Automatic annotation (TrEMBL):
The active site is at H188 (tele-phosphohistidine intermediate), C499 (proton donor). It is found in: Cytoplasm. Belongs to the PEP-utilizing enzyme family. Mg(2+) binds at E428, D452. It comes from Candidatus Faecalibacterium intestinavium. This is Phosphoenolpyruvate-protein phosphotransferase. Residues 152-222 form the PEP-utilising enzyme mobile domain.
Length: 541
């Protein structure tokens, strides 16, 4: 068995025989020409045909991958008419008296090099698009055919690189996955593969022509390929592939469908995340938004206090990628089980009951304001809500809100863009439940953190494995607290969600719906099963 590693662009498994795709010899003519006007006409004819081809590819991509992706080929058509590009080609033909092939190749390479040298990774990746359209014109000028790269049986394609137009031309029914030596994760080829749901590995330097015809598995989860895998490994990856297929089938069944019960009650199903790394899972599982962004992971992943700009980027990336979906950012919940050295927090006898979360934020205002400013700045890029953890009093909620307002005023005075944010309170303590009416009057939503609510209601340390036998996740006291919270919230026009683990427990979904819970936010993997459950419930019975 051989193992090749690279960058995965889709979390999936592909199993099958490898076909190594060797590109045709791309030597191009370097002939000089006498009649430059005729050569310009040859070029213009190829340009017009290439534009027609891009339009046909647009139609194909539209059917297979959707509007956003197909747009790539509209952009290609525009690039083919770009004045700078066209002028550069004509200049080489007229000025250097060189043939159209040479002019297209040279101008294409030059423009691709300009893109490749840019700092912005998105613009860098456009270099592949320029090379792609130049190749399209070269194929027309030289009369070479680019279509028949696949055989007759489904295979994993291995290539040095694949252009977006090559990827979309591939017959999907014969394509199990692909591996390339080159390529970037922002390239349109990668974007296309993702949207067409094809497991693929890029930047795999290990590929060799000897792999041709061998059995292989692309493991997109671990960014590697196993060539000639051992029987045990093959079996376990086949199992994983089956699970993925089931999920895909569920996704196809549910995508775009509302989370509505048989008798017409709709509820939001969101996902819980820790950062940008989880956003793919939110999208892949078709969650309606993010109900809990555990922002403390931004702190846990830093060696020192994360700056406002660093946090702004971390939140903005998530918010922008998921817009217009709602992203609820929970302010820093450091302390108890989540500690970082640089904060130098004292050792405590009872950390779960200690100096944590909002308690730290309200006593270290500079620390809190750094985060709130970053969240408010990110709110200009999408649909952001903010919520405060571990609230036990109205005074705390008011203090947190006042600090948020202070930050907003400062940012506006500094001329920085900020959006509108809904404000929420996490209901994680019995104290918060008992004063839920008062809290609801002063915030837009509640999010019930059942993990901590269970811990504090039942006096069961959630970190202590020895207490497992005493844990009843359906403890009536906790369920009653949830019911009380929903009723209090609704009395004051405050919507109520659940973001603790209990939200994913499908044995309770019907009870939550009957209580009137407005939103369930669960780990991304639980989104689809939960949505399926909701759609099977009939509350009228
Ligand atoms: C909770 O307590 O239920 C919750 C969602 O927050 P965390 O698990 O991060 O404490
Ligand atoms: Mg909690």
């Amino acid at each position: 068995m051989q193992v090749g590693t690279g960058k995965s662009i889709l979390n999936g498994i592909a199993i099958g025989k490898i076909k190594v795709y060797k590109k045709k010899d791309t030597t191009i003519s370097t002939a000089e020409v006498e009649d430059t006007a005729a050569e310009i006409a040859r070029f213009e004819e190829a340009q017009a045909k290439a534009i027609e081809q891009q339009t046909a590819l647009y139609e194909k991509a539209l059917n297979e991958a959707g509007e956003d992706i197909a747009e790539v080929f509209n952009i290609h058509a525009m690039m083919l008419e770009d004045d700078d590009f066209v002028d550069a080609i004509k200049e080489i033909i007229n000025g250097q008296k060189m043939c159209a092939e040479y002019a297209v190749k040279t101008a294409g390479n030059n423009q691709a090099a300009v893109f490749a040298a840019m700092d912005d990774p998105y613009l860098q990746a456009r270099s592949a698009d320029v090379l792609d359209i130049a190749q399209a014109m070269l194929d027309i000028l030289q009369g070479t055919d680019t279509q028949s790269v696949q055989g007759t049986e489904p295979t994993i394609l291995v290539a040095e690189d694949l252009a977006p137009s090559e990827t979309v031309r591939l017959d999907k029914s014969l394509l199990l996955g692909f591996i390339t030596r080159e390529g970037s994760s922002n390239s349109h080829t990668a974007i296309l593969a993702r949207s067409m749901n094809i497991p693929a590995l890029i930047q795999c330097k290990d590929i060799t022509e000897e792999w041709d015809g061998q059995m292989a598995v692309i493991d997109g989860y671990n960014a590697c390929v196993y060539v000639d895998p051992t029987p045990d490994l093959l079996k376990s990856l086949q199992k994983r592939q089956q699970e993925d297929r089931k999920k895909q089938a569920l996704l196809q069944e549910l995508k775009g469908k509302p989370n509505t019960t048989l008798d017409g009650k709709t509820i939001n199903v969101y996902a819980n995340i820790g950062g940008i790394g989880d956003v793919g899972a939110v999208q892949q599982n078709d969650a309606g938004g993010v109900g809990l962004f555990r922002s403390e992971f931004v702190y846990l992943n830093s060696k020192d206090y994360p700056t406002e700009d660093y946090q702004f980027e971390a939140y903005k990336q998530v918010v922008e990628t998921l817009a217009p979906r709602k992203v609820i950012i929970r302010t820093c919940d450091i302390g108890a089980d989540k500690t970082v050295d640089y904060m130098k927090l004292d050792h405590e006898e009872n950390p779960a009951l200690g100096y944590r979360a909002i308690r730290i934020c309200l006593t270290r205002k500079d620390f809190f304001k750094t985060q709130l400013r970053a969240i408010l700045r990110a709110s200009a890029y999408g649909n952001v809500s903010v919520m405060f953890p571990m609230i036990i009093s109205l005074r705390e909620l008011r203090d947190a809100k006042a600090t948020l307002e202070e930050c907003r005023k400062e940012l506006v005075a500094e001329g920085k863009k900020v959006g509108e944010v809904e404000i929420g309170t996490m209901i994680e303590t019995p104290a918060a439940v008992m004063i839920a009416d008062d809290l609801a009057e002063e915030c837009d939503f509640f999010s019930i953190g059942t993990n901590d609510l269970t811990q504090y209601t039942c006096a069961l340390d959630r970190q202590n494995a020895k207490l497992e036998p005493f844990v009843n996740p359906h403890h009536p006291a906790v369920l009653k607290m949830i019911q009380m919270t929903v009723e209090a919230g609704h009395r004051h026009n405050c919507w109520v969600g659940i973001c603790g683990e209990l939200g994913a427990d499908t044995a309770l979904t019907e009870s939550f719906l009957r209580m009137g819970v407005d939103e369930l936010s669960v780990n991304p993997k639980s989104v689809l099963p939960l949505r399926k459950m909701i759609r099977s419930i009939d509350l009228s019975k």
